[in-house]
Amino acid sequence: MPSGMASAQQRVDPAAAVDDPQIELIGVRKEFGDGRGHRVVAVEGADLNVGDGELFAILGPSGSGKTTVLRMVAGFEQPTAGTIRLGGVDVTALPARRRDVNTVFQEYALFPHMTVAQNVEYGLKVKGVARDERRRRTSDALDMVRLSGEASRKPAQLSGGQRQRVALARALVGRPRVLLLDEPLGALDLKLREQMQIELKEIQREVGITFVIVTHDQDEALTLCDRLAVFNNGRIEQIGKARDVYENPANRFVADFVGTSNVLDGPDAQALVGRPGTFVVRPERIAVFAPGTDPVSGVRTVDATVLEVIYAGPTTKIAASTPSGITLTATVLTASTWLPPDLTHGTPITLAWPEKALHQLSNEE
Question: Which tens digit of pLDDT belongs to each residue from 2-28?
């Protein structure tokens, strides 16, 4: 199958194909033995391309095959079938050391007895790069990750975010064409992780090379990437721009995994929607009004009763039940002047959402 075209198992929007792919996976399959004589398929029929200079995310739950894909691109695993190309060159059979790729792992794997500078320049030293050249490149790499003042410190003297940046500098100092990052921010606390997401985007923009980030964190993928691929059970469910995947999920799995969705199906839901099919509407697209609010053209309304109110600072989540027993969740700004005061269990309300907020899922699950 030509690169950029979808298999029967994956849905690809028009943004999925790129004109100048740096990474191409064509019909890639990976099997492992389970130690009992059986074969387990970790990745099945993956067709994927990533553009030169793109920040791309591979998103999926544990066991979905995303890390296996990263390891095959890096050369740490060989595909059972299919082709992998880097920069247009078939590297399927090439070992990791012969690929112009570096990898940053969640554990960072820094040498504790070495300084920051020594950690960063280690790979250059192994390759025989002259001392003056590796010192210059190490200094440039540390400047890039904003650690120029920490060169003489040891890893134990650094914060988690600083250690992550040392690992990033060490990967970038070799000037690879592709940088692979396996759950790179997973060991950081929430506030630091959010800060590092911004810094990582800035660094990628500055160096201009292809970044591929593997993560199970949907918010991280949406925040960081230009495009993403959603994996499930070894297959690609959808590829596309982050906003397109979020707003137009291909199927129920994507709708449930990428963000939170109200899924409307069955006779009662069809009566609510006004037409047959399975639909999703995101909680943030549902507004909450006082009961008996008059309908507006292009806006669908339904009376409901509050089940639960969850205060989350800037936003408030409200779960409510319709007369037919459908549970809907709305996420509204806590400061919204439209939000009725003193909402509690049993409070009557009106829920409303624009018709254009409804997205119909494919019949193919």
Answer: 333 333 344 555 445 577 799 999 999
**Residue written as token pair 């907020």:** 357
Percentage, residues of the chain above pLDDT 90: 61
- Is residue 260 a contact partner of residue 312, using CB atoms and an 8 Å limit? no
Alpha carbon distance 360, 230 (integer Å): 18
d(CA 25, CA 83): 6
| C-alpha–C-alpha distance, residues 210 and 339, integer Å | 44
The letter for the amino acid at 51 is G
pTM, entire model? 0.86
Cα 228 to chain center, whole Å? 6
H or E segment at 221?
helix 218-224
The pLDDT score that the predictor gives to residue 331 is 94
Name every residue whose Cβ is closer than 8 Å to that of residue 313 and which is 6 or more positions away in sequence: 334
Residue 59 and residue 237 in contact, taking contact as beta carbons nearer than 8 Å: no
What's the rounded mean pLDDT across residues 227-232? 96
Cα angle for residues 108, 141, 109 (degrees, 5° grid): 10
Q: What pLDDT score does 9 carry?
A: 43
Rounded Cα distance, 55 and 229, in Å: 12
